[in-house]
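Justification of computing resources. Each target in the renewal requires a structure prediction run like the one illustrated here; the chain below, 209 residues long, is used simply to show the kind of job we budget for.
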Amino acid sequence: MPVRLMHWINALAMLVMIGSGWKIYNDEVLLGWLHFPEWITIGGEAQGALQWHFFAMWILMLNGLAYLAYGLATGRFKRKLFPIRIREILNDLRDALSFRLSHTDITRYNAVQKILYTGIILVIIVQVVSGWAIWKPIQLSELLPLFGGFQGGRIVHFLGMAAIVGFLIVHVALALIVPKTIGAMINGGPGIDPAASGPSDGAPGQTTH
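Resulting structure tokens:
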């Protein structure tokens, strides 16, 4: 239940941040040839977009900290995301591209899922830090050298947004291909026998995802 709750809070916050971020970007474009259609932006005027962006930022950051704390405290990260082996990634990627990747057991992540989920956690952390750096370039001037200055921070933040959007597209596409994973994020998914699969995220007998 905690994972499912944080998942949907995170999804909503990310969508608001992306939509409002596109509006903020349009107000001062980074790439002259790229403008986002107004109908997919959030916030109306630039000031409204900033307010929505900061509001969603606090939700995303606090929810993310709760998720990291939960994952570390319960050992969920260790069980679900590690180890990550190059050979397994290559094998699972090959199977995925040839549509032969098994989705029978949705309680376990394959190597491709492990690298994607671990990677997106790291991207979001960098996104938060770069966002703070360009939001408060004077007060948090110590952060700017990490990105090569203010403009470098904007570039990193933009690339992080692109990575998150790409992840969401892949994530949703895979969920549609294996629709039982959507149900699992709503009702908890199949039951897990703790004696057979090791410690779970919940109490014995609970369904987990």
